[in-house]
Specification:
The structure holds two protein chains of two kinds.
Chain A lengths: L1 H15 L15 E7 L4 H17 L3 E7 L5 H10 L6 E5 L3 H6 L12 H6 L2 H4 L3 E2 L2 E2 L2 E5 L2 E6 H7 L12 H11 L5 E3 L6 H9 L7 E3 L5 E3 L3 H17 L11 H9 L3 E7 L3 H7 L6 E5 L9 E3 L2 E5 L6 H11 L2 H11 L2 E2 L2 H4 L11 H7 L3 E3 L8 H18 L4 H19 L2
Helix pairs in contact in A: 1-3, 2-14, 8-10, 9-10, 10-17, 17-18
Chain B lengths: L4 H29 L3 H4 L14 H9 L2 H32 L3 H13 L5 H13 L6 H26 L2 H9 L4 H30 L2 H6 L8 H5 L11 H31 L6
Helix pairs in contact in B: 1-12, 3-12, 4-7, 4-9, 5-7, 6-7, 7-9, 8-9, 9-12
Classes of the chains: A alpha/beta, B mainly alpha.
Chain lengths: ~425, ~280
Amino acid sequence: MRARSGWIVAAVLLLLTGCTGGARDGSADGRITLRFQSLAWQEESVEANKELVAEWNATHPDVRVEYVQGSWDSVHDQLLTSFEGGEAPDIIHDASDDLADFAYGGYLADLTDLLPERLRADIPQRSWETVTFGDGIYGVPFLQEPRVIIANATWLKESGVRIPTPEAPWTWAEFREVTKELSSEGKYAVAWPLKEPVSATLNLSLSAGGQLFHRGADGKVTVRFEAGDEVVPRTVHDQVNTDASASGSTLGSGGSDTLPGFFGGKYAMVPLGFSYRQQIVQQAPKGFDWQVLPAPAGAEGLAQGVSPQTLSIAEDSPYKKEAAAFIDFLLRPENMVRLALGDWMLPTGTQALKDPALHTTRHDWATGTALATHLRSAPAQSVRGYPEWKDKVATPAFQEYYSGAIDLGELRRRLEEDGNPVLARYQR
Amino acid sequence: MRASTGARVGQYVALLAYLVFLAFPFLWLISTAFKPPQELGSLHPTWIPENPTLANFRQAFDEQPLLRAALNSLLAATGAAVIAVVIATPMAYVMARHRTRLARAATGWVVVSQAFPFVLVIIPLFLVLKNLRLINSVPGLVMVYVVWALPFALWMLVGYVRAVPAELEEAAAVDGAGRLRTLVSVTAPLLAPGIVATALFAFITAWNEFFFALVLLKTPEKQTLPVILTHFIGAEGVADLGPLAAAAFLATLPSLVVFAVIQRRITGGMLAGAVKS
């Protein structure tokens, strides 16, 4: 289905190029209407977005914002068609790892001179790097989430293992030892949901100094699977295949699929995105005691890669200045906090991150917030050809390695020897 | 040849297994729609919810404009079905009754058109709709659905028309009925079940369609049920499972009802003309 829709969209693009209309006309009474396509989907998040739009509309009678509900499931194809059809929303919510094609394709406005200094200064440079393509800034990163370990607190407490904190996290080696200690017959210390093994592995590998993608002096990127890149994959592989401390059956699962086993006492820990806490709060059986632990640290400490949620402006929008003003309003520190709480994620803004609501022990907000300064741009963020490399080479290679079908040498060979020609095709 | 009792039992067991296999997703959907969040996350899920709740339905209705989406789906599907049948019926009659070179060419065209990639349909439609300012409008979507449903509707109706013996029309003509009278009084009543079956098939196809609706409809007040359902799915495929199941269950009901009512006629319509009488 997805392949077919991609094929359709590609052909639409070919034929529509040059056939599409330009900017919309302004209204006769001079009143401007901006369309804001939001991908908020959780109840509290949709509510927060709608409230903020209503507040803006109440105070800006000349620039009305219309809330349009989008969907994560199909956003790329839908936006691509909208851009080519001249029907794109003025303000676009997406994720930074989806922006490269749109930015290089000229569909998004360069925000470098549109954003106010307050907003530019409030968001750290490492977050801006996730939305910088070439010389331009094509989105405002505003929400992000680290990968954390959600643990069965009772199980951990009873086992007597050292409980890690952001200040004193487990090392990867210690993590492996702890998982050996926690597992027993039929019960696993950890369940890795690795349906999408590449981004999870690459992002966590930053902690061990893994980089995988190396940009040469000529600006071209190549894959080199070095010592730092081995740490995370080897840990997972050995947990599953040597120690039997990680369940092999969850390797092909998504995060949500592992929760029943977690609640049922089959797994002590599940590495998940920070926002999964919302599902856990909703679905956990009464009395189930859980807690958030930081992901293990390596040579680079707690560093890990993320692809923040972003707000962009369509290049075709005739109201870029007004759209930027709305984004500025939406991302004021107090509003960013509301959005973050609604999505159970972390804000990128330094002012918002100081909000007491994000430092409570309730639902372990404080643990996640303490990780914010360690978050970096996902390694693959600006690598052209990454999607094909990921789908055709890296995903099957990691899946086979994690399941024990191939060894580390073969994994390295595939990522490098099979993968580099794929990337090279995009960089001629 | 009479089948042995063992073979007959085996057939029934296989049929039952097949029915269970087919029904499983829908029964699980119903079960999920009535489960509270804690039961959704259970390691030992039960078929019958232990603490059934309507909260998922309430949340689904609170979060998304399901009724409006259902109305849009209804308008789009009904419009598509009616127009497709109105266009296809006379075409099918001509193709079935007048086996001229043109009719044969038209039949061939219909067959070939089924092999075309989707893309050849959507591109001209997208351009036309954009120029007509019919993007983000239900009438625009109806146009797409009509074009999409027409070949199959035509194919079904040709079979139905061929199943009506031409001798009946000739007898009516001998009795003095004109062409129009023959069509209205003799052919149309016999063709009615086929027309209804074809219309309902077009209806259900349009009711379930997702991609055209996603691309063409921009604002929530215009979107159809399949598009609205995706709003319960978050990044990386995380879903608000309870409300999603509740909304999906409601979205499935019309199709089920329609199929339950007309399945015999649909089967008849598809098979009509399959064998030479």
